[in-house]
Design brief:
Elements (H helix, E strand, L loop, with lengths): L1 E5 L3 H11 L4 E6 L11 E3 L2 H9 L10 E9 L5 E13 H11 L5 E3 L3 E7 L2 E6 L2 E5 L1 E4 L6 H6 L6 E13 L5 H4 L5 E7 L2 E8 L12 E9 L3 H7 L11 E2 L6 H14 L2 H9 L4 E9 L4 E2 L2 E3 L5 E2 L7 H15 L7 H29 L9
Parallel strand pairs: 1-2, 1-10, 2-6, 4-12, 10-18
Antiparallel strand pairs: 3-5, 4-5, 7-8, 8-9, 11-14, 11-16, 12-13, 13-14, 15-16, 16-19, 17-18
Helix pairs in contact: 1-3, 1-9, 2-9, 7-8, 9-10
């Protein structure tokens, strides 16, 4: 079965891998002209997807991770207020992405190509890719929270702003004196204040090293933001362009970076503010809730954040995308003839499964005093 995937980030790659290993003819079209890099911070390891691939004779490159042993809460003065066991391995977006790309057979990703539209009938989908049109059996939209393909299917639907955002950053462990970061190493460290939450933990080095002194700190600073004008300023990049949901490393305006560093010095414990101050290229993620009205229309299916966007507190965005991919592959064998029916059944089941995960994010946020009350 010929399957076209729009979007070559984690969701698109996991879907390509699971579908390819059971015999589908899969091609990813990624609008970036080069492989992606530095699009995110710490992520959970994709255990279910790796197990699925191994069941089908495909071995995914080892996804390295840094374990956290304790969850430690500190106050404004840096005093420890709560200390709990926490065994959770964190990899990095870069490491997971690289592992997926290296496991996928060569030639499956076409860079610098954008899926711009489609039409479909009972037998297949005609996919518009820039100025080329090709025929596929299935089109998968893996183009993120602001999915343009979802907008074509459900033009009246839009993700809901959660009332807060996350300033984020990655900084090398080597840039700090050992004594200055001793309490942060191999722990998740958190600080809570009214309307904000800060957390930091270690992730592998860009080259995958786990050696002490070569790893990186990943930090997130959640802050409430209800002013639409302020939100627009935050999302205006250094060229003056306003973005919808995020700014990647290097896109933040100099004024925004200066304001962020000033706030960090003013509001955070010194052991945490040093991470922000040392980060060369912080980035920004606006927090949304999104659950598409349906995950499927005919032979077009939504996966990853295009289908459902969960909040980062759940630590499950990447694992949810992998579960989307595995469940889709289980529902759609290569020799299937009742394609639309199988996709419809998959959509109904998978949408029900992710609803509880979607609800978990607002519940966690409310416990931290973040965002606006969740409306069903």
């Amino acid at each position: 079965m010929k399957i076209v995937i729009a979007g070559g980030s984690i969701a698109g790659l996991t879907a390509a891998l699971t579908l390819d290993c059971i015999g589908h003819d899969v091609t990813i079209y990624e609008r970036s002209p080069v492989p992606l890099r530095g699009q995110g911070g710490g992520v959970a390891v994709l255990r279910r997807m790796m197990a699925f691939l191994e069941q089908h004779g495909r071995h995914c490159r080892h996804m390295i991770s840094v374990p956290t042993h304790r969850r430690r809460w500190i106050d404004r003065d840096g005093t420890l207020t709560r200390d709990e066991p926490e065994m959770l391995p964190f990899s990095s977006w870069d490491a997971v992405y690289r592992s997926l790309c290296e496991t996928l057979p060569a030639g499956r990703i076409r860079y610098g190509r954008t899926v711009t539209g489609f039409t479909q009938d009972a037998d297949g989908v005609d996919v518009q890719i820039d100025d080329e049109r090709l025929r596929a059996d299935v089109l998968l939209a893996a183009d993120g929270t602001g999915s343009r393909l979802r907008a074509r299917l459900f033009p009246d639907y839009a993700p809901s702003f959660a009332g807060y955002l996350a300033w984020r950053g990655i900084v090398d462990e080597a840039g700090f004196d050992v004594s200055a970061i001793a309490t942060l190493v191999e722990n998740m460290t958190l600080h809570k204040a009214p309307g904000e939450l800060f957390m930091a933990f270690l992730i592998p080095a860009l080259d995958g090293s786990l050696q002490s002194g070569k790893r990186r700190f990943n930090w997130l600073w959640y802050r409430n933001e209800v002013d639409p004008d302020a939100l627009r300023r935050h999302l205006t990049d250094r060229t003056g362009q306003v973005h919808h949901a995020s700014l990647h490393p290097g896109q933040l305006a100099d004024e925004a970076v200066a304001t962020l560093r000033s706030l960090a010095a003013e509001r955070l414990p010194a052991v945490l503010s040093q991470l922000v101050l040392a980060t060369r290229a912080p980035f920004l993620q606006v927090i949304f809730d999104a659950l598409s009205p349906d995950f499927v229309d005919g032979r077009v299916a939504l996966i990853g954040d295009a289908a459902c966007t969960v909040r980062p507190h759940t630590a499950s965005g990447t694992s949810k995308a992998a579960h989307d991919a595995v469940s889709l592959a289980e529902a759609l064998p290569a020799n299937a003839t009742d394609v639309a029916e199988r996709l419809a059944r998959w959509s109904a089941q998978r949408r029900t499964e992710v609803k509880s995960l979607l609800e978990k994010g607002p519940q966690l946020a409310a416990s931290f005093g973040l965002g606006t009350p969740h409306r069903r």
